[in-house]
Amino acid sequence: GAAAAAQPCCGTAAPPPNAATPGAMVGAPALARYESRDASGRVWGMPSAYGRGQCVDCPRKAAPPSSRCQDCQVRLSQTTHPRMNPEELAMLRAHFDGCASRLADPRVERDIARRLQVLYQLADDGRL
Fold first, then answer.
1. What stretch of H or E contains 37?
2. Is the pTM of this model over 0.90?
3. pLDDT tens digits for range 3-40
4. How far apart are alpha carbons 64 and 51 in whole angstroms?
5. Contact 61, 52 (CB under 8 A)
6. With contact defined as beta carbons under 8 Å apart, do 84 and 128 qualify?
7. Which of 33, 82, 90, 122 has its Cβ near the most Cβ atoms within 10 Å?
8. What is the pLDDT of residues 45-64, one digit of tens each?
9. DSSP H helical ranges for 1-128
10. Distance between the two ends of the chain, CA-based, in angstroms?
11. In whole angstroms, how far apart are CA 66 and each of 55, 56, 57?
């Protein structure tokens, strides 16, 4: 009935803990998570025939669907790097924007422009 329709279907990914949801912790790092609910409401984790693999950064087990453990995911999300030189960032922008402007499909061009804005903001914030 209506109660079953309100539950997410099997195989849907849960939003990260800091997603814009009521009660979400502000400033909490986003960890890759996978959850699915069956008809009884039981939560299942990521399906795997071989178990969890090793974290790519340390000897601990990875936390699927990420290839890193939770500690390494948190460390990576909080890492900052020196900001890119403004002249180099301007050169990078000019190159990528020039390539994007030569695309034939305007929808693809808008999508790429939106994604490039995210990249430029990350570079400007020292998050790359």
1. strand 36-37
2. no
3. 444 444 444 444 444 444 333 344 556 676 666 778 88
4. 10
5. yes
6. yes
7. 33
8. 666 667 778 999 999 999 88
9. 2-6, 70-78, 86-101, 106-125
10. 47
11. 9, 10, 12
CA R_g for the chain: 20
Give the pair of three-digit tokens for residue 11: 């195989």
C-alpha–C-alpha distance, residues 120 and 104, integer Å:
23
C-alpha–C-alpha distance, residues 125 and 90, integer Å:
14
What is the distance between the alpha carbons of residues 115 and 99, in angstroms, rounded to a whole number?
A: 14
Burial class (CB in 10 A: 0-12, 13-18, 19+), 64: middle
